[in-house]
Design goal:
Number of strands: 8
Pfam families: ArdcN, MPTase-PolyVal
GO molecular function, one term: single-stranded DNA binding
Largest sheet: 3 strands, antiparallel
Structural class: alpha+beta
Low-confidence stretches: 1-23
Strand content: 5-15%
InterPro entries: Antirestriction_ArdC (IPR017113), ArdC_N (IPR013610), MPTase-PolyVal (IPR041459)
Protein name: DUF1738 domain-containing protein
Order of helices and strands: HHHEHEEEEHEEEHHHH
Radius of gyration: 20 Å
Mean pLDDT: 84
Distance between the termini: 17 Å
Strand order of the largest sheet: 1-4-3
Number of domains: 1
Length: about 325
Amino acid sequence: MTITKKSISTHTRKEPLLTHSTATQKDIYARVTDKILSDLENGNLTWRKPWNADYLASQVTRPLRWNGVPYGGINILMLWGTAVEQDYTSPYWMTFKQAIELKASVRKGEKGTQIVYADKIVKEEENAKGETVINQIPFLKPYTVFNAAQIDGLGESFYKTPEPLIANPQHRIQQLETFFAQTKAEIYTGREASYIQSRDRIQMPPFESFDRVTGYYAVLAHELTHWTKHPTRLNRDLGRKHYGDEGYAKEELVAELGACFLAADLGFEPMPEAHHSAYLQSWLQVLKDDKRFIVSAASQAQKAVEYIHTLQHP
């Protein structure tokens, strides 16, 4: 198995210019969260659907823009979910206008998938002391994209299904061993999988105790996402005070998403869904109480994965 970064085109075609939308910020967050809540209430983890689809098994990658650049954050979950629901095997997505610029066309009657563009508004304000301060206010705007399977006239590369990655189940995967080793995280063998922040160490069960070789790396990816929260790294504090509280549920959700994003990048299946069945109720409550958190969790997970990638050396 070869681990590679997606090639990025040097063309200058840009992301769409966004026009005013009647959808409010609250509408966007609620729409995204309600869809994921619905899936969770039915016992499904939206972001795991690609690995459960027969036609995508061992072929999962992050959704890609027209130029090969992966989508990030909440858009990964939204596009993965649509791909499974509509049986799309191409990882490529683009706007109506981008398809035209590629001398292709969206087929008549095709329905697009709404995703979001995140940015910040810079605003000067006067504080209580009469001083001028600059505040950055985050915002989301929706826009619509289509899968390559909905578009005629694209180059052949847009329609190819990713080649399945086959690992020898009896042996460690050297490329993954190297990837995780280069993070310099302290990993030792113990009785359970956990990240102990006070000691800044990751504990992993023996490699031989896993039924599948990819299961070991999936669990390690989850714990490594936790590892990024340390104050010397991303300093991620979601308010956890004790085991099982709301802060604990939030951090577990970030680590779950981070493991899935990393698995898609490196070409292996994330840990079995059943492993996290006990967390479903706590996640449901967190998302019901805070409609914005799934967007925040996906963003935090992406930051964690990007940080892990920065630790790799040529």
